[in-house]
Design brief:
- The protein folds into two domains: about 1-85 and about 95-175 and about 325-450, FAD/NAD(P)-binding domain (3-Layer(bba) Sandwich); about 185-315, no CATH class.
- The protein is about 30% helix and about 25% strand.
- It has 13 helices and 20 strands.
- The strands form six sheets. Strands 1, 2, 5, 6, 7, 8 and 20 form a seven-stranded mixed beta sheet that branches. A five-stranded antiparallel beta sheet has the order 11-12-13-10-14. Strands 3-4 form a two-stranded antiparallel ribbon.
- It binds flavin-adenine dinucleotide (FAD).
- Flavin-adenine dinucleotide binds near residues 36, 50, 52 and 321.
- Flavin-adenine dinucleotide (FAD) binds near residues 15, 37, 52 and 154.
């Protein structure tokens, strides 16, 4: 196998919501940055057609700013986002054109001078004296050894941290069950008006939202009034369909996500229970089952569901979306008690305020718990407790299972990424371990860069 060596200040592994702002923040603060991504493009889950949830708190206050807001500002300017819309169920919904998000991420990285290595997957790590010295990535039959002062693992699953031997946890404390993956797909030709009329005649289909009382306002009046909507419902109707026909829907309701593309909606309906997407055999099985579910679900939608009679299958996401796998041990860990109490330590580098939203890993059911007051993500939850020189970003940071259910949303992962990149640039500039960088320097820099931390 061919080998080559590269050197930089900060190496970012993974180019999704946790990785893009990490690379941008580090490069904008003077670090030389290499970003490795296994796909041929940036975006991670942000290019699957999902809404960006979590910019606003339950009370309607904006709690994510900085680079994450910069993306929305730019996408609004080009007509590719409707901005933030209040929602009684999701706190806020921010729709973005997925492909425009992807191109914007690319342009911003190039402008900041980030060196991009696409089609490279993390396959190795060199550790010496407790410090991560190199990340090894492989692409096209070649190994690239990257030496860096700081490594930021933003692979979602924490693949670099795992290979390097860092300690991690998976799933709930009780049974290690993880949230299920979902293969997103989209349709064109959806008729919103038909669904709205049906819901007004059968209002029970908008009220059965799992464990949370969504209160007033999550109804056809809202969905008629805006294009920025995410519809979750149809439980009663789905129960009736199941009596009539074989129904390959393994969740309790359906999620319809409108888009900035006229006539196109994204569907979050596939669910593959009992999966561990950090295990390659289980992940492959999830991909297969997910793909096989799409046709059956589409048939049910077309035959039975109001609004889908003339729908055309548009696109299937290239890969299944993974909600949960490994969470790594940091020098600090955010617990569900802290999250529910709205605890904001002085080394807060990002705020999180989305609901705890745990899709059942066994089949039907979703647990939702309100976060009334936003909580802080401390810098220490991004710093590996096991390996010096390693930072975590995105959904693999040091939190418990319940807290992951809340902080995993993309704007929060972007805010965490900006924190990780800012810390990495400080450490590289000082020639110091990220563990000894004064958190005040990171917090002050983030504040100047328009992050919202209080
Ligand atoms: C089905 C589903 C629905 C969701 N719904 C919402 C929602 O409505 N709103 C919301 O805000 N959030 C939602 N989320 C959560 C959110 O999408 C994720 O938690 C978030 O994207 C995590 O960001 P990340 O950067 O850590 O990981 P990812 O988005 O997964 O990005 C990781 C990146 O790393 C790359 N990568 C992975 N492994 C390697 C490797 N070994 N080497 C190199 N590159 C690698 C991947 O290709 C990817 O680009 C949903 C998630 C799923 C799966």
């Amino acid at each position: 196998m061919g080998k080559r060596e590269l050197t930089c200040d900060v190496a970012v592994l993974g180019g999704g919501p946790g990785g893009i702002p990490a690379a941008l923040a580090a490069a904008r603060h003077g670090a030389s940055v290499i970003l490795c991504e296994r796909n041929g493009h940036l975006g991670g889950n942000a290019v699957m057609g999902l809404p960006l949830l979590g910019y606003l708190s339950q009370g309607g206050r904006q709690i994510v700013g900085g680079i994450a807001q910069e993306f929305v500002d730019d996408l609004m300017a080009s007509g590719d986002s409707f901005g933030h819309e209040r929602c009684p169920l999701h706190n806020s919904v921010t729709l973005v054109h997925p492909d425009r998000f992807r191109l914007l991420a690319l342009k911003k990285c190039l402008e900041a001078g980030v060196r991009l290595l696409f089609h490279t997957e993390v396959t190795g790590a060199v550790v010496a004296d407790g410090r991560l010295q190199k990340a090894v990535v492989t692409g096209k039959g070649e190994q690239v050894e990257i030496s860096a002062r700081v490594f930021i693992d933003a692979t979602g699953d924490g693949d670099l941290a795992y290979i390097a031997g860092a300690q991690y946890e998976k799933g709930s404390a009780a049974d290690h069950m993880m949230q299920p993956p979902t293969l997103m797909f989209s349709v064109t030709g959806f008729c919103k008006e038909e669904l709205m009329s049906f819901l007004e005649a059968h209002p029970e289909n908008m009220k059965q939202i799992d464990t949370v009382n969504v209160g007033e306002g999550y109804d056809t009046k809202l969905w008629r009034s805006t294009d920025s909507y995410v519809f979750v419902g149809m439980k009663a109707y789905l129960d009736e369909i199941r009596k009539k026909t074989d129904c390959p829907i393994f969740r309790e309701n359906i999620i319809i996500i409108n888009s900035t593309i006229p006539g196109k909606v994204f569907l979050n309906i596939v669910r593959v229970p009992d999966s561990d997407c950090s295990d390659i055999e289980s992940l492959s099985e999830a991909e297969i089952k997910g793909q096989l579910q799409v046709e059956g679900i589409f048939r049910i939608l077309r035959e039975y569901f109001p609004g889908f009679g003339n729908a055309v299958l548009d696109s299937i996401s290239p890969a299944i979306g993974v909600r949960e796998t490994r969470r790594f041990r940091g020098i600090e860990k955010v617990t569900v008690d802290q999250a529910l109490a709205g605890y904001k330590p002085e080394n807060t580098i990002a705020l999180a305020g989305y609901k705890i939203d745990i899709h059942s890993g066994r089949g039907e059911g979703t647990v939702l718990r309100e976060i009334v007051e936003p909580y802080g993500i401390p810098l220490g939850s991004l710093i590996s407790a096991d390996l010096d020189g390693l930072l975590l970003s995105g959904r693999c940071i040091s939190v418990d299972h319940e807290t992951l259910g809340s902080m995993r949303v993309m704007p929060t992962c972007m805010a965490i990424g900006q924190g990780a990149g800012t810390l990495a640039a400080c450490a590289a500039r000082q020639g110091a371990s990220p563990r000894v960088v004064d958190f005040r320097e990171v917090v002050d820099t983030l504040f100047k860069d328009k992050a919202i931390l209080k």
